[in-house]
Amino acid sequence: MTRVLTVGMHLADVLGRHVESIPDGQGIQLLDEIRLTVAGTAAATAVNLAHLGADVSTVGVVGSDALGSFITSQMGEAGVSTMNLRIDPSSPTSATILPIRKDGSRPALHVVSTNGKLGEQDLHAELLEGISVLHLGGTGLLPGIDGQPSANFLRTAKKLGIVVTMDFIPSRSSLAADRSAIEPCLPYVDYLLPSDDDAYYIAGSGNDRQQAIDYYLNAGVKNVLITMGPDGVSISDTNNRDIRIPAFDVDVIDTTGCGDAFSAGFIASLIEGAETRDAANFALACGSLMATGLGSDAVVLDRKRVDEFRTTNTRRPL
């Protein structure tokens, strides 16, 4: 089977819904649901890929605590190879608290912790043996490998003929710092898969999608796929700019993990030989399905379920 390697963010999400405000002082707000899930742009993507039938392994760092054990066991049960998921006992496992609003949006309260322990020593060339697709997820919040270490690893992958996909999450502490984390990687990226907010921020384009597309293509990215939530996805390469595919019309519960589900669906389609537009269509179905529940594992993606969803759900207008 085609092998996929995901590298980057592994964390636990604690999600609660619905939260409209944080109570003052020692106040309490009663919620409908609280969940603990495996998350992160490398971890959640890997789990979804495994559910979609891909042979996938992952590289990252977790702590020797309960959250680290949870992530490792859940990923293993899903079918992801975790032999290169390193345990670092010096720090707690990375985690995020997500108060989910009624419209599905959510702020994020995040601790980098063990994701900051992922270092250049973890990115050895032997990891790439037999790999067809490399997905780098979480650039911008991976201080140990952001910038040149990641770029070097991607360059090695490209020399081996590996397809490179990438998603990033800027820290937003400094645009210059975020760009220094992301820009060195871009010349080696075949498919860039950012959200619209993140894509526009790094490009410095305001809400100008065309300017953002030009920024990434000029930086060397071969294909830019900007996910836009209810507005679908925009696909661009050097020959075709801003080809739009509409999103599916669903009742959104939570947008957590939708981007990772999109990435997984896109990669799963690529390794089966799909063209970019067809892969993006399948990926949109995966992301839309994930929005119908709470958390990055709200829906167990499998081919039958995704295909049924695609044939029975209508699209939103462009």
Q: Provide the CATH superfamily.
A: Ribokinase
Task: Give the strand order, joined by hyphens, for the main sheet.
Answer: 5-4-1-8-9-10-11-12-13
| Tally of alpha and pi helices | 9
Order of helices and strands: EEEHEHEEEEHEHEHHEEEHHH
Shape: globular
Low-confidence stretches: none
Specify the structural class.
alpha/beta
Instruction: Report how far apart the termini are.
Output: 37 Å
Q: Largest beta sheet, briefly?
A: 9 strands, mixed
The CATH topology label is UDP-N-acetylmuramoyl-L-alanine:D-glutamate ligase
Q: How many domains in all?
A: 1
Mean pLDDT, all residues: 95
What oligomeric state do these chains adopt?
single chain
Helix content: 25-40%
The counted number of beta strands is: 13
Beta fraction: 15-25%
How would the blueprint of this fold be written?
Elements: E1 3-8, E2 11-17, E3 33-39, H1 43-51, E4 55-63, H2 66-78, E5 81-88, E6 95-100, E7 109-111, E8 131-139, H3 148-159, E9 163-168, H4 175-182, E10 191-192, H5 196-203, H6 209-218, E11 223-227, E12 233-236, E13 243-245, H7 258-270, H8 276-290, H9 303-312
